[in-house]
Amino acid sequence: MSLQEELRGPPPAKLVVDHVSKWFRQKRHIVHALDDIAFDVAEGEFIVIVGPSGCGKSTLLDIIAGLEKPDKGRVLADNQPVLQPGRHRLVMFQESALFPWLNAFGNVMFGLKLKPGLRNSERREVAKFFLYLVGLEKFMQANVHELSGGMKQRVALARALAPNPRVLLMDEPFAALDAMTREQLYGDIQAIWEKRRKTIIFVTHNVREAACLADRVIIMSPTPGRIREISEVTLPRPRDFNSIEIAKHASRLTAALKEHGMRATVAG
Amino acid sequence: MRRTLLAILFFVALVTLWTAIVDAKIWSPVLLPSPHSVWDYLLNASRDGTLLSASLVTLRRLLCGYAIGIAIGLPLGLLTASSTFVEDTVGVLALGLQTLPSVCWVPLALLWFGQTEVAMLFVVIMGTVWSVIIATDTGVRTIPPIYARAARTMGSNYFHKWTRVILPASLPYLVSGMKQGWAFAWRSLMAAEIYVTILTGFGLGHLLHYGRELNAMDQVIGIMIVIILIGLLADKILFSPWERFLHRRWGTGRR
Which end of chain B is more exposed for a tag (fewer CB within 10 A), N or C? Predict the structure, then answer.
């Protein structure tokens, strides 16, 4: 950060999660999914939400995306309350949500076509650029089923980045991938984040992933989903997933999770 | 190449077998005509134009009825999949009527519309519409919800969501439903044409019927072959391109 930026003070919060609570009504009982979740996200910040399954982290991401409505509280994006999904906050999902009736290029074009103010030739250029950015320029015409798991998630990343959203929401995007592919993607996502300076909220149950990617880590505990701890990761970037510093930090996060009576996935 | 040769060989063998049976004179040639006489009939009927005009009349009825059936069935299927009220009413009706063989509509159509083109159309539409409704409904219900969620975050809503996400996502079901609808329509039209004489047009079914009346077995078998060929051709022209596209995109099917 330059001196000038330092003097101007912190930038205004990009995203405000304002005391959000959520209940799910099921047949016999009511599940308290989220309890009084509150945090701010700054412009260009990389936030990782980590917690065991069932802690409501995916529900929280859905609420930020506007796919679910909170029962209490609200989410503000650029000072506007989030009422419905919109292309300013794009989601990259757990399993590949690519459309099988379109090829890789068509998938990236899908969101772009819904973005007004562009000529079609410009849209095609943008789509090509982002496929190039994720290293798939040779697979533009490939059908979804012809791509490997890692390539699919790269296309999904390109599709989420192409309409230039203000916030990128990632719901365990690498959970289903093998370790080798995942480590490669950690490098890629960091490089893209450096280049594009996106605000990213990344949900995972893998503490090492959190330590490798995050500016700040939010630790959540289940039943009901609550924030237990928010900690900064100040390690220099780019970070190597296999470095000792990451491992050390990950074990600190694990300790914090254990403190709240939870077990975490440490393995990569 | 090898496959084509084998296929040709198979059909040559079939015709040879047929000729051998005719030559053995087990049945009277009135009951079992030779391939040669069937071929002669087809050649003559093509020359004087009866075959072509009958095929055109039949195909026109079929395509019109089929198109209307899809135009009605597709939106209704989308509605049954998206509203519980329509599902409980039209959906149940469609499920029930789909089990009704479409020939059973012929008597009703005759009473309502008389011996007219409308009666023919009605039978074809009734054959098509229910299976299209059910296929569309199943297709929409089988779509992984994540597609719609992903599309919504990208700003896809209402009409755009239906035309660009829901419909293409259910395409594999739609195509098989339309194929089934086509088969039902084709069968019901043939039944209707055989039973009902319509003065406005002389279809393939009528030729078949009069072949029987005149004891002209060469005509009966000739027309049957034409009907089979039209069915094959429709499959190749109407559905094969879609199916090939689906297999390529979705990565299903063999090879």
Answer: C
CB-CB under 8 Å, A95 with B153: no
Of residues A241, A242, A265, A243, the one with CA closest to residue A253: A265
Residue B153 has its nearest CB partner, among A65, A99, A103, at: A65
Beta carbons of A100 and B164 less than 8 Å apart: no
pLDDT band, residue A210 (cuts 50/70/90): very high
Residue type at A196 in one-letter notation: R
CB contact under 8 A, A89 and B249: no
Other C-beta atoms lying within 10 Å of the C-beta of residue B235: 14
**Which residues of chain A does B164 touch, with a Cβ-Cβ cutoff of 8 Å?**
110
| Predicted local distance difference test score (pLDDT) of residue A12 | 61
- pLDDT, residue B254, reads 56
- 8 Å CB contact of B153 and A87: yes
Distance CA A23, CA B128 (A): 46
- The interface predicted TM-score (ipTM) is 0.83
Q: How far apart are CA A97 and CA A110, in angstroms?
A: 12
Residue type, B46: S
Letter string b/e over residues A79-109, b meaning 16 or more CB atoms within 10 A of that residue's CB: eeebeebbbbbbbbbbbbbbbbbbbbbbbbb
pTM: 0.81
Bridge partners, B80 (sequence order):
none
CA distance A231 to B7: 72
Select the more confidently predicted residue: A102 or A26: A102
Residues from chain B that touch A146, judged by Cβ atoms under 8 A, are 251
Max alpha carbon distance in chain A (Å)? 58
Chain A residues contacting B, CB < 8 Å?
A: 65-67, 85-87, 89-91, 93, 95, 97, 99-103, 110-111, 114-115, 143-146, 159, 163
pLDDT at position A27 is 82
- Given an 8 Å threshold on Cβ–Cβ distance, is A110 in contact with B154? yes
Domains of chain A: 10-88+166-268 (3.40.50.300), 97-164 (no CATH)
Tell me the pLDDT band of A55, cut-offs 50, 70 and 90: confident
Domains annotated for chain B, with CATH where assigned, are: 39-250 (1.10.3720.10)
CB < 8 Å to B153, chain A? 65-67, 85-87, 89-91
- Say if residues A36 and A200 touch (Cβ distance below 8 Å): no
d(CA A124, CA A156): 16
Q: Per residue in A126-139, pLDDT tens? A: 999 999 988 898 99
Q: What is the distance between the alpha carbons of residues B21 and B23, in angstroms, rounded to a whole number? A: 5
Q: Which residues of A touch B161 (CB under 8 A)?
A: none
Instruction: Identify the segments of chain B with pLDDT beneath 70.
Output: 253-255
- Overall average pLDDT of the A172-183 stretch: 86
Distance from CA of A25 to the nearest CA of B (A): 20
